[in-house]
Amino acid sequence: IGNTVLHILVLQPNKTFACHMYSLILSYDRSKEGPGSLELIPNNEGLSPFKLAGVEGNTVMFQYLMQKRKQNLWSFGPLSTVLYDITEIDSWAEDQSFLELIVSTKKREARQILDLTPVKELVSLKWNMYGRPYFCFLALFYILYMVCFTMCCVYRPLKPRTGNRTSSRDNTVYVQKMLQESYVAYEDELRLVGELITVIGAVVILVLEIPDILRVGAAKYFGQTILGGPFHIIVITYACMILVTMVMRLTSTAGEVVPMSFALVLGWCNVMYFARGFQMLGPFTIMIQKMIFGDLMRFCWLMAVVILGFASAFYIIFQTENPENLGQFYNYPMSLFTTFELFLTIIDGPANYDVDLPFMYSVVYFAFAIIATLLMLNLLIAMMGDTHWRVAHEQDELWRAQVVATTVMLERKLPRCLWPRSGICGREFGLGDRWYLRIEDRIDPNKHKMMRYTEAFKAQDRESYDKGSEKLETNGDTLCKKDLSALSLSLSRSTSRTSSHRGWEILRRNT
Fold first, then answer.
1. How many whole angstroms separate alpha carbon 53 and alpha carbon 11?
2. φ, ψ of residue 424 in degrees (nearest 5)
3. What is the per-residue pLDDT for 1?
4. What membrane topology does this protein have (predicted)?
5. Cα–Cα distance between 482 and 480 in angstroms, integer?
6. Where are the alpha helices (DSSP H) in 127-228?
């Protein structure tokens, strides 16, 4: 019951009341340390009160709990050293990481905890010491891997075509070699090494991604932008295309260019994932993701309807015409593709002035240009501009969340020998087996002195105002509204000449 009440207090909107009641309940806890403590008992979702405060974005409760956990090591004048307990914060030995919970939640208030002590210092320590070097090395390794795969595709085994052409529009001059003919020369053996590296890389990608999908869940793993959800879909699809291409090569099946083309596009697009390691480029990847999966996905439904309607109209108009003079609409699939190019203004309106064009073509193309080019494209630009404005206001916050998610990902993937635990074991200071982060703080005495002066002057102004208010209440029945305003003006002038006014002047000069 006590643990349930603690979880309820974390969700209370009255933060001050919740903190006092939290302390009151813990004062009756008999087992304050160890696994039986009320603060360490998780709820049905596996969240302790401390983790729940982070997921809900309750910064007041989080700071209150951190103040209870910290240990003052020493202080000398304005300098002080504090040990912060990071046992539940550090993701090194946690199955359900506190940092991963913060970046995976949809509440923006939770990401503000990343700027609080000691989370900010812990993330900075992990990222600067291990995260950034490993991430840059991983980015370089992936680019070299994609270069290897691209070279294997460019020099794939082809041979001249021997069969006769079946149509005047048939333009194929090379065909794919059979498996027995693909690995004969020295160049083929060299390409085989690159292909083996490509296939091994695809298998490694699937081995690393599938356990995370099962642990986190497909909805959260692919749906969270900060966790890199769309890029996980891209890299898994890329690995599957590589395996499909391998099977088609081993079985000598024609058409390997289809999965190979998809793999090339997806593999090189995944390079944008590594932009999150740089503050200048990281926010742009989030903007691209939000535009593609927000604005563009909604816009594509409207675009598909418009293209389908006008492509059908164009095909019907040119169905009776000679396709050699106007080949852009010679069949229905080509009409769809040509209309798509016209929609994005990639090509101009197809017209052959050496022949007579149907009259309805001019009418339909006029309506298409008005609806598609002038109306819908400008609507898409306005939608993307609004998304860019919204993301730009929180781009630094989103980039820090990306850094945290990347750090947690690297810490889980890499062996323990390459990523030692951050912080100091409490046994060195006689604090048990819990881990602490030592943070040195400098207290500015002038700042605190100014704050004390400010509070004192505010109290004097409040007392003077209360005295003036009592005078107004005693004479309120005999004064009219004009006299009240005059008296309040004279009261403000009289209080401005008090000692507090002189104090404010001293404070301004000192500042």
1. 8
2. -125, 135
3. 56
4. Multi-pass membrane protein
5. 5
6. 132-154, 179-182, 186-216, 218-223
As a whole number of Å, the end-to-end CA separation of the chain is 52
* Confidence tier at 103 by pLDDT (50, 70, 90): confident
Q: What is the pLDDT of residue 496?
A: 43
pLDDT of 155 above 60: yes
What whole-number distance in Å separates Cα of residue 447 and Cα of residue 40?
A: 38
pLDDT, greater one: 55 or 311: 311
Q: Is the pTM of this model over 0.85?
A: no
Which strand (E) or helix (H) includes residue 83? strand 79-85
Q: Are 403 and 276 in contact (CB under 8 A)?
A: yes
Element at 21 (helix H, strand E): helix 15-27
Q: Could you give the count of Cα atoms lying within 13 Å of 375 in the half-sphere of its Cβ?
A: 10
pLDDT at 487 over 70: no
Specify the pLDDT at position 143: 93
Query: Any idea which residue has 């004279």 for tokens?
Result: 490
As a whole number of angstroms, the distance between CA 114 and CA 103 comes to: 9
Instruction: Annotate 179-192 with b (16+ C-beta within 10 A) or e (fewer).
Output: eeebeeeeeeeebe
Contact by Cβ (8 Å): 364, 310: yes
Whether CATH 1.25.40 fits 292-405: no
pLDDT interval class at 58 (50, 70, 90): confident
SS3 (DSSP) at 85 = strand
Backbone angles phi, psi at 440, to 5 degrees: -95, 130
DSSP states of 369-407? IIIIIIIIHHHHHHHHHHHHHHHHTTHHHHHHHHHHHHH
Using the structure block, give the residue that is written with the tokens 């046992």: 87
Torsion angle of the four alpha carbons 360, 361, 362, 364, in this order, in degrees rounded to the nearest 10: 80
Secondary structure (H, E, C), 100-150: HHHHHCCCHHHHHHHHCCCHHHHHHHHHHHHHHHHHHHHHHHHHHHHHHHH
Which pLDDT does position 50 carry in this prediction?
A: 74
**Phi, psi (rounded to 5 degrees) for 181:** -95, -5
Cα dihedral value 455, 457, 463, 469, nearest 10: -110
Closest CA to 312 of 304, 300, 322: 304
User: 79-85 and 158-160 as β-strands: parallel, antiparallel, unpaired?
Assistant: unpaired
User: Widest CA span of the chain, in angstroms?
Assistant: 114
Print the SS3 string covering 433-453. Answer: CCEEEEEEEECCHHHHHHHHH
Residue-range domain boundaries for the chain: 5-115+423-445, 125-163+173-276, 292-405
- Number of neighbouring beta carbons within 10 Å of residue 96: 16
Helix, strand or coil, per DSSP, at residue 424: strand
Phi-psi category of 428—alpha, beta or left, where left has phi over 0 and alpha has psi -120 to 50? alpha
